[in-house]
């Protein structure tokens, strides 16, 4: 006991790695906080000297301008806050559609790049080398001015079965409106999905226990058709269709996809799919050729071998760089300002900024939106990546 009391206390020395680690972290935090406070204080001082008001009260003021496309109800007397929501929804619309279409097209082109057929292989190679080397803004301008705006007017529009009309005003199509049997039909679809999930789980457990296969695809398809179909027969049709009609110089009724949306979505899809195709090709080639030979020795055909053996293993290589392409597509949607599509940058950081003069607030909101979208995509893809990762024992 006396030895413990008489023992000299250990002193903190700068030569200790742990001491230096904590010291540098504290200095970094203090420097970052000080820099942030200086920038904030300097900005506030400059705004006061110039008589510029700051804050987010402008979001409650009336916008006073029209918007070409809005997924929710909007009128010119609505507030800037509603304009922000419309711009956000339009950005998310392009992002979601672009991600889905680019993924499908990219996987098809990537597999085609490895095809033994000379023609298919070379066409896929030309597609990749052409579209990934042209800047996305130029592709957007090409599809907008050279393709969609050069189409005839509504009276001379290209039509398909008098249902879909393509003109310089965009794509007009029938609109689905909820009927009396909509909610029972929606509940029946949810019930069918739950039934399919339980069936697949039962089939997998049965296969592991007995080794007997079950036709999950056909059984699931039957459930998805029979349950909602029976509900529609009992409660009536869930939807009624409003057809577009030409009145005067434009179409009335139905849904319309404006040419700005079509050009932006098509350009981003084609551009991003070229990069996804190369990611898919590299992911497939990373899988050992012995896996293919083992599948053939078991009697699997090329199609099932690709779907059940090669692709599941290649996904572990594909997912990380694929996430980056999704992020690039979401951020490239801001290039819509070049053709006037009403998304976040052109609508909120453009029109609203020019009308209100609240540059700092508007830019901060716009940057926060893109940051939130990017982080959300990253989190979802990371969760999926962990689910398909190999678990070592």
Characterization of the model:
The longest helix is centred in the first third of the chain and has 33 residues. The mean pLDDT is 86. A hairpin with a 2-residue loop joins strand 6 and strand 7. Strands 1-2-3-8 form a four-stranded antiparallel β-sheet. A two-stranded antiparallel sheet has the order 4-5. A two-stranded antiparallel ribbon has the order 6-7. Among the domains are: 35 residues; 208 residues, MetI-like (MetI-like fold), CATH 1.10.3720.10. Helix 5 crosses helix 8 and helix 11 runs antiparallel to helix 12. It is of the alpha+beta class. The protein starts with a helix and ends in a 5-residue tail after the last helix. It is built from twelve helices and eight strands.
CATH architecture of the domain at 80-155 and 257-388: Orthogonal Bundle
Q: Report the CATH superfamily of the domain at 80-155 and 257-388.
A: MetI-like
CA-atom Rg in angstroms: 29 Å
What's the rounded overall pLDDT mean? 86
Strand order of the largest sheet: 1-2-3-8
Provide the descriptors you would attach to this structure in a database record.
alpha+beta, 12 helices, 8 strands, four-stranded antiparallel beta sheet, two-stranded antiparallel ribbon, transport, MetI-like fold, 66% helix, amino-acid transport, 393 residues, membrane
């Amino acid at each position: 006991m006396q030895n413990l009391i008489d023992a000299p206390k250990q002193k903190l020395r700068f030569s200790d790695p742990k001491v230096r680690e904590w010291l540098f972290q504290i200095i970094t935090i203090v420097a970052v906080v000080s820099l942030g406070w200086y920038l904030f204080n300097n900005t506030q001082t400059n705004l006061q000297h110039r008589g510029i008001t700051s804050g987010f009260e402008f979001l409650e003021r009336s916008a006073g301008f029209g918007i070409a496309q809005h997924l929710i109800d909007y009128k010119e007397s609505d507030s800037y806050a509603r304009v922000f929501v419309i711009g956000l929804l339009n950005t998310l619309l392009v992002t979601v559609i672009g991600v889905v279409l680019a993924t499908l097209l990219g996987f098809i082109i990537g597999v085609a790049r490895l095809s033994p057929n000379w023609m298919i292989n070379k066409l896929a190679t030309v597609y990749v080398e052409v579209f990934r080397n042209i800047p996305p803004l130029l592709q957007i301008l090409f599809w907008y001015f050279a393709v969609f705006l050069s189409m005839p007017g509504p009276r001379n529009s290209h039509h398909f079965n008098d249902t879909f009309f393509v003109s310089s005003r965009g794509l007009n199509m029938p609109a689905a409106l909820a009927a009396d049997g909509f909610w029972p039909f929606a509940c029946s679809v949810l019930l069918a999905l739950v039934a399919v999930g339980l069936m697949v789980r039962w089939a997998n457990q049965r296969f592991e226990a007995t080794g007997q296969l079950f036709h999950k695809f056909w059984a699931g398809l039957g459930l998805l058709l029979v349950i909602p179909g029976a509900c529609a027969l009992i409660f009536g049709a869930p939807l009624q269709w409003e057809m577009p009609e030409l009145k005067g110089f434009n179409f009335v009724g139905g849904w319309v996809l404006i040419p700005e949306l079509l050009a932006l979505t098509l350009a981003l899809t084609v551009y991003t799919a070229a990069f996804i195709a190369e990611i898919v090709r590299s992911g497939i080639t990373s899988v050992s050729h012995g896996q293919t030979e083992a599948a053939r020795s078991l009697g699997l055909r090329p199609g099932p071998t690709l779907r059940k053996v090669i692709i599941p293993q290649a996904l572990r290589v594909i997912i990380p760089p694929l996430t980056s392409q999704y992020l690039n597509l979401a951020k490239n949607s801001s290039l819509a300002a070049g053709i006037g599509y009403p998304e976040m940058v052109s609508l909120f950081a453009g029109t609203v900024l020019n009308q209100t003069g609240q540059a700092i607030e508007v830019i901060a909101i716009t940057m926060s939106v893109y940051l939130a979208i990017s982080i959300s995509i990253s989190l979802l893809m990371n969760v999926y990546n962990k689910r398909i990762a190999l678990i070592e024992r």
